[in-house]
Prior knowledge:
It is a single chain. The chain is α+β, with helices and mostly antiparallel strands and 406 residues long. The chain is built from 7 helices and 16 strands. The chain has helices spanning 2-12, 16-29, 33-46, 50-63, 68-81, 85-98, 103-121; strands at residues 125-136, 157-168, 176-189, 197-210, 213-216, 219-226, 229-237, 240-246, 249-262, 275-288, 293-306, 313-325, 330-346, 353-368, 373-386, 393-405. It has a 16-stranded antiparallel beta sheet that branches. The protein is elongated.
Amino acid sequence: QAYLELADAYYVTDQLDPALRALDLEQRENIDPGQAAFLRGLVLVKKRAYAPALASFDQAKSIDPKLALACDYQIALIYARTGKQAEARDLFQTIAEKDAESDEGRMARQQADTLNARLKTRKSFSGMANVQYQYDSNVILKPDQSAAAQGISGQSDMVAVLALRAEYAPEVQLPYSAKFQYSGYLSSHQKLRTYDMQSHTLAVVPSYRMNENSASLPITFNYTLLDNTRYLQAYALTPTYSFVIGEGQNAQVSILYQKKDFLQAPAFSAENQDATDTGLGLAWSRAIADQRGFLNLRYDLTKENATGANWSYLGNKLGGSMLYPFTEKSRLALGLEADRLDFDNVHTVFGVKRADTTYTASAQMLYALTHAFDGQLQYVWTQNDSNIPVYAYHKSVLSIGVNARF
């Protein structure tokens, strides 16, 4: 009996492997096998080993029927954690109907009501529209220090921006799921109209869920126009694996394959930017402020193999972001990023291997005007350092806008 009590003490103090060893010793004595199986299930849940935890709870029910309600409650919690919301709701309702006055029954009723409300408000269709008015200090990326920049003026402008996103997520049988997405971006300049841009992206994202972890295969196609003229089309595959690494912490690993086709003829062959990209991405995120905010870190390694000799490079990008809620209605988003590009070949015009480092810092204040509308004020600063002066520049973008969700 002491082994069972010892396992419970280890469980409460989060010493999970010693708890399992104590339960193994208890199993040899076979003093209270039903309670031991139930406690083993609780330990395995803490270790996020959900499949063996379910087996332990089923075993505990079969050995000791008095544990059935408690086991069913834990099984329903596992269903909720692993994305089986409807199954969890149904099991919680069954528990509440069997013994409405017990602790398990009352808690099950609360859980069932919460899940039922969540399932009713779930929408297969969702969307976003963002409207901004910006001041861009350097639309044309005028070099900081270069003879080529002498005499250039009028690089700043006011810009109206519209960003759209729509998503359809049909109900399918878990663990499978899928999303169909459209994203659009349109910019209109007050003076520098040749820099007006339209960008349209279609994506299909099939996914497979494994308990709290998931694997997905985003497939995207992008078509971009510049000054109402065909500019770029690109295809990408990004296999991604997302997994839990701790309480409130998630990690992600992704692989990139992308084909870019620039639709305007280059000035000369070395400037041809048509390319095939391959890459690796690593990301980590942590929930903060009672799950209402987050911290995020990301690293991307990209190899671009371009047709033109001047545009093949190895890229290393490191970035971090934070979303913090100050009040119920106001949130602050901060971002910082460094992107290093080391080009493969000696530049055909400037006679050196180009190396660029781009630093980007952003700050955005969001304020909830209504449940579906946010007001936003944003500042973005960009500095590009290059060993070839004509590519070195800096710019600032200040914008005010409204974001709508539907």
